[in-house]
Amino acid sequence: QARNSEKAQSMLFRFREQQAADLGIIDAGRTRRPKIITEQTSIPSCEKWRGQVVKEISRKVSKIQDPSLSDYQIRDLNDEINKLMREKHMWEVQLRNLGGPNYMRFGPRMYDEDGREVPGSKGYKYFGRARELPGVKELFEELKPKTDEQKEKELKLKREARKTVDADYYGFNRDEENGVLLEYERRKEEEAREVMSAKAKAEGDGSDGWVGVPEWRVPTPDEVMEFLVERRKSRLLTKLG
Fold it and tell me: What is the CATH number of domain 4-143?
């Protein structure tokens, strides 16, 4: 019973502390931030929690510049910053829904401490040294807008390629019509037959070891329909019998 009493006192203390934070009586930084943001209905409280998140983001953005951090630490820190950015956005959405300040009207662009826009794909950004991580730097190089000189160089390469590409490249050759390809295939077939025959003789097999490809006749639509009708009739008779 003593433990239950202590637990109740602890819960009551946290409730009153949260209530006091909502009213602005104590510093929100001393209390744990609520996880369910949509349940917070006090504008001053939401303002304080958002401010706390902004301070955390600022500290971590400064920390990610540390040259002593490993690549793994930088990745983890960048993930934490992005998580805090999403939480900040949720507080701003709740503030707007409650009729408070609309921080979202300033747009989604973000800038680092040097005044440069933070690069990254939609929804995920790279801060500080995270931009120098293996694979990330190359990615942003590819995403950079191409200069007029680069565009002209690409067009020139395409024009040069078109000059050397003919119908043969796309498979529209005339070898079968003039007999060149057919003659080449006939010679290769004869060579393969001779190799198979010599191999069969060496192994003491009476046959030449060559089996021709059977000629298949494609049935007509009427024959296919007749086959399907007969099969269906046979199944019905089996069920009735």
Answer: 1.10.287.660
